[in-house]
Amino acid sequence: MFWIILTAILVSASCALVGSILVMRKQAMLSDAISHAVLPGIVIAFLLTASRNTFPMLIGAGAFGLLTVYLTDLITRKTKLFEDSSMGIVFTTLFAIGVILVTLFADMVDLDQECILYGEIAYVPWDRWLFMGMDMGPRPVWILSFVLLLNIIFFLVTFKELKIYSFDYQLALTMGLPMAGIHYGLMGMVSFTTIASFESVGAILVVALIIVPPATAYLLTDKFLNMILLSVGFGVLSAITGYFLAVWIDSTIAGAIVVMTGIYFLMAYIYKVYFDEKRQGLDSQKNIVALTPK
Amino acid sequence: MSKSVQIPPVEVHDLTVKYGEKPVLWNVDFEIPSGKLIAVVGPNGAGKSTLIKAIMGILEPVSGYVNIFGKPLDEMRNQIAYVPQRESVDWDFPISVQELVMMGRYSHIGLFKRPRKDDRQIVAESLEQVGMTEYANRQISQLSGGQQQRVFLARALAQRADIYFMDEPFAGVDASTESAILELLKSLRDQNKTVIVVHHDLHTVSQYFDWVMMLNLHLVAFGPMESTLTEENLKKAYGGRLNILSKAIHLATQQNYSREK
């Protein structure tokens, strides 16, 4: 039980971190695209190394995550299509290639489609990491800790750059700040986070963990740092309460965690609507000032 | 003679920009003099915003190049400041006024470093210059349109640049903000800064600015206000849009007369 809750906490914390920036940038669905598009990366890593070793998979997934972002940008820039359409083209195609690869090499690949899509966090404790003959504990916990650490380092180092990246990308460009680096760095972190979370919660539910806790936080705060911390807070809270919900109703843990993220969002929404009613007076005043004719 | 030897703050040569297949700027070529307030005018879709975005390197031109004080843009980025259109950002974004203005310091602070004391000092001074000191700790979601524009200007001031590009800073602001912005522009000019402003309002262009650039995919005319803001040039720039045209000529020339009085 301890390992399962710890895994859930690690997954939701990483997801909420990268998700907070995606939500503030209004690019939340990019996580959906990346979570699907990394599939061929996983399969290719699998075929090349013939093992379920995680590091080649992280690299394969990272490569395909960045490829998704690059191709989406390329199509958007070179054609008159908007970003959502370009993304729709790229990630579905890559995902389909992944599905074909899985079916073609089904005999060689010990990859379970069910597991990729839905995950199974309950098996985590049995997936041990043996290091020099020693039992180091569940392997996913190590990987997820590593990814969370990477995420935290990335956020600490680029905190200021992430802020301007999310708020005013064009100004950052005019200043010559390395926005492409920040962009691909963040997308790399989204890819790592997604693939590391796969086994536990699956490709679909990981999207919920990336979007819903940050969206909840977004309703409740207007401070940048609080937005990030609250996102992680809601993610972790959903992980813990979700676990107990699953035990209580004897159902899927990943599903219960996501249901909890939805419930917290609903609570925040109701609070916000009520809160906004009280602030209405202030808001209408603001509009009068803005609309005063010259 | 010494004036003509001066290196121009901004030189643009043979600049052509396309969106996809569609050209939005054709062969634009000019040199901007220093210490002037310059208005960029033209009908909707004339490429006004595109021009300043291309000069600042946000858009990649198909051909042509830009020099800032005789050097390539990449060496001179700290010399330029940018005020984007107010609508280009999300004003519900979770940051305070102070944090927004601090962004103007980012390229000076350096990558991955934290703001220092003198950065905070500059931010405070910039807020004071636009009369927003008491709003420093407000969240930007609580600002009115005019206040948003002042905060954007404060951020550009915090960049401590020599050349300022502003995209419609007068759009949708209240009267007191409009005059405050104008005072600010004049004080920048008096410090021999160069200010290039995309401007929509032909009523005020001759009142507010020293030079005018008329744009309509091509560069129609560029020069000192009196000799450039003529009926003929306005016709060229706004040609075809008759109803706008007659109004524009009426307004613009009327302004000229009232100025001469």
Distance between the termini of chain A: 66 Å
What count of helical segments of chain A does DSSP give?
Answer: 12
Radius of gyration of chain A, rounded? 20 Å
Largest sheet of chain B: 6 strands, mixed
Spatial strand arrangement across the major sheet of chain A? 1-2
Shape of chain A: globular
Shape of chain B: globular
> Average pLDDT value of chain A?
86
Helix/strand class of chain A: mainly alpha
CATH architecture of chain B: 3-Layer(aba) Sandwich
- Main sheet of chain B: which strands, in order across? 6-7-8-3-9-10
Q: Structural class, from helix and strand content of chain B?
A: alpha/beta
**Biggest β-sheet description of chain A:** 2 strands, antiparallel
Low-confidence blocks of residues of chain B: 257-261
The low-confidence runs of chain A, each spanning 5 or more residues with pLDDT under 50, are 284-294
Classify the fold: give the CATH topology of chain B.
Rossmann fold
* Strand elements of chain B, count: 10
Task: Round the mean pLDDT of chain B to the nearest integer and report it.
Answer: 89
Strand content of chain B: 15-25%
Query: How many strand elements of chain A?
Result: 2
Number of folding domains of chain A? 1
Summary keywords:
heterodimer, A: 294 residues, mainly alpha, two-stranded antiparallel ribbon, disordered C terminus, B: 261 residues, alpha/beta, Rossmann fold, 6-stranded mixed sheet, 4-stranded antiparallel sheet, 11 helices, globular
